[in-house]
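Teaching soon. Got one?

===
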Amino acid sequence: MEQQKEFPRRKKNRLDQYDYSSCGAYFVTICTKDRKNIFWAKEQPDFVGEDIILPSDSVRLSLYGKIVNDSIVAISKCYSHIELLQYVIMPNHVHLILFITSQDGRIISSPTDKKSISTVVGQFKRDVSKKIGIAVWQRSFHDHIIRGRDDYEKISKYMYNNPITWQYDCFYIAE
């Protein structure tokens, strides 16, 4: 009898027993498929920075990057209980800080009662891929439940500096 190979188990992405539709702030990172650099235009100015979102004079988004930007901005319009606190679009990933305020809101595209972070991210990824015409995202996403002001400020600072320090980032892939 042939022994069956045991495949390595995937690391769990979510905390057990945590309700990801509960009020609070969440830091989310979503990467492109195969970490392809598709969201920034090829030629960039010497300085790359980020204000609360992305200033138009610092990073030039590619056509795909502009589609991502429009879909990010639409999150709060589609989900009345979600506030978009901050985001940054990098060449091969996006970072979002989303705040769930309540469960009163209704999503435009889904009749379900609970709108978890997974629902919001899934809808965002589908919207972008549909508009671009191909699947651009890797499977799943990374999230972090923000636990207090210090945690928020650390993440916010990281996001603010991410474009400036892009070449040192763990997601950096030279073209």
Summary: The longest strand covers residues 24-31. Confidence is low (pLDDT under 50) at residues 46-56, 105-113. Helices lie at 63-78, 117-132, 149-161.
